[in-house]
Every structure is written in structure tokens, then in C-alpha cells.
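Hey, can you fold this one?
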Amino acid sequence: MARYRDAVCRLCRREGGKLFLKGDRCFKPSCAIEKRGTQPPGMHGATARRKVLAGYGQQLREKQKVKRIYFVLEKQFRNYFEKASRQKGITGENLLFMLERRLDNVVYRAGFSTSRRQARQLVNHGHIQVNGRKVDIPSFQVKVGDVVIVKDTTVKNPHVEGAWQTAVGRGRPNWISAGGLEDLSISVSALPTRADIDPTINEQLIVELYSK
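Sure. Predicted structure:
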């Protein structure tokens, strides 16, 4: 399976803002954005000026930003868009709702991990169960009523416990109902709404890009 293996902090600098790809580090002074600002990555980043984008450039950057937030590659992202365009409702919002309902994103949003990248690793390695059954597919789509838990042998993992405590302080989206620290479980109580998703995302630009 293809996946991004390069440094992730450069992705934030490329997009000109925090994408929260490194977990707790994104909230510390060691964050690349805090240390270097929004200068582009690369040897000429310090002296390069950001171009004022319009039209296609804006649309492309927005698509790249959302892909990087959810750690989805181009082919899979395009498939999500095609499915969203066939559904009833607003295509851009349908796209974001499917990305939010990915199991790796739910694991991150629930507070089992500090980043989506770490959440994907938990899923891939079989540490996550949905409705009592192991699911190791990060793109698995959760639905209302699903119960997601960390398997018993992973509950006491210090990284998982630390992420859970961090999530308690930062809060969880309204569509996720959390259990206690003893069992590390959450239930999907509703479908995500647009208000639960990053307000800086302009999904209409992505729709315009793929509609050409």
C-alpha cells in the first residue's frame, strides 16, 4: 500500500499553517510552524515569497491540504469525491463527512491517539475493535451506533492513556460519546455535521477543481 514516508512538518509549512500531523508536538514551541513560521520548506524557503494564488491554484492547494489532514492519497481521495457526488445533499460536505467517518479519524477524534498517523498505526496493527470485532482497515466507515474500543492488551499502553487524558482536556466532537478510562471505549452517537469539522476548510474549492 502506498503511503507518505517523508517528514510531515514540511507539509504544514507547505500549506502555510498547522495541520496537526505530529500530535502533542503541534501544541509545543518545538512545532516547525512556531520555530520557522509559515515559510515554505526547502533550501530557498527562507527567502522565497509566497505567490498570491487565484482560481486553479487556490483549488489545488485546498485539495492538497485536506488530503494531508486526513492522510489520504490522490486515488483514494478522488474515489471519495466520486462517491460524494453521487449522494444526495451538498457534494463538498458529503466528502468531508466520509473522511470524518474513517476509522482512523474516529480513533484520533476519540482520543485513542494524538494524531491521525498514530491512529492509522493502531488500526493497522489490530489494536482497535468495532462492535466487538477487530477491524484493521483504516478506511472502514463507522455508522451511528457503532462502539469502538481499544483491545484489552493495549488499554494500559502509556501512549494511548496519555492521548486519552489529552482528549479529555481538549474535548471531543459532539457525535462521539466517550466511556471511562478503564475500558477506553466510545460510541458513535450521531453522524458528523459541518460544524464538527475544521472551519478553515473550503470544500467548495475542491468541488470546483474536480468539476472541471
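The two ends are 29 Å apart (CA to CA). Let me know if you want another pass with a different chain boundary.
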